[in-house]
Amino acid sequence: MDTLLANNLTLGYGDSIIIDSLNVTIPKGEVTVLIGGNGCGKSTLLRSMARLLKPKMGEVVLDNEDISKMKTKEVAKKMAILPQSPTTPEGLSVYQLVKQGRYPYQGLTRRWSKEDEAAVEKALEDTNMSEMRDRAVDSLSGGQRQRAWIAMTLAQDTDTILLDEPTTYLDMTHQIEILDLLFDLNQEHGRTVVMVLHDINLACRYADHLIAVKDKTVFAQGRPEEVVTCDLMQHVFNMTCDVREDPLFGTPMCIPHGKGRCLIKQAQAEAQTKKATIS
């Protein structure tokens, strides 16, 4: 299984530095989730790891080799990425989309094979999309569409899968559906999964390893139980909260402080108590 890491990585756009001198190693065969505030560089870091963004300094290393020096198809056979909110040409079927995952294995001397077909069929089966193979991708619901894209990344048959906010714009039911799917892929097939998530509680439930990004580098990393604390939430997200144990999963659960209906009820109760005392 391939090792993915960043050495002294500096990233940015133009003169703007987003990530500065970052070092991190992605645990093999585990689910790693990148967390942090908006604009902290999570997606930028993920794009660089997938060789979609050239570092200003440093390197991303895949299987002991600088990915900038590897051939595109060689990288694509080892690592797949699903960007945020991908789009497809109008009318493209699920089957046609998933077939595109086999592009690293095609060439002048190698045409579509039984092995390619088997990989596509397995990807459709693993994502429960076999019955929708002939449906147009743009006709699917958000959760179904995301499963189709994940099927394409699975057909690529890589040890490592990178996903940028795979649950964005999905309702709670479909968020859990997608995260359960990725969890099963990790547990049953040993895939290394790296993804960006905004929901801290879901990140804690599904991640083996968390990486919190702040001030252009890694602020903290480790098991969710080690990383997610009231102090971290204050420093990384500028948010005051309680951190308690999730009653179902035993993982950290953040309860943000702030205004809400419960405070209104509390104020009303205090007013009633005060009124009764005066009377």
From TrEMBL:
* Ranges where the ABC transporter domain occurs: 4-240
Keyword Membrane in annotation: yes
Q: What is its main location?
A: membrane
* Stored InterPro entries: AAA+_ATPase (IPR003593), ABC_transporter-like_ATP-bd (IPR003439), ABC_transporter-like_CS (IPR017871), P-loop_NTPase (IPR027417), Siderophore_ABC-ATPase (IPR051535)
Q: Where in the cell is it found?
A: Cell membrane
Topology class, membrane: Peripheral membrane protein
- Note whether Cell membrane occurs among the keywords: yes
Keywords on this record? ATP-binding, Cell membrane, Ion transport, Iron, Iron transport, Membrane, Nucleotide-binding, Transport
Organism name: Halobacillus yeomjeoni
Q: Which CDD domains match?
A: ABC_Iron-Siderophores_B12_Hemin
Q: Name one GO biological process term.
A: iron ion transport
What name goes with this protein?
ABC transporter ATP-binding protein
Q: Give the highest taxon in the source lineage.
A: Bacteria
The GO terms describing molecular function are: ATP binding; ATP hydrolysis activity
Q: Offer a single GO CC term for the protein.
A: plasma membrane
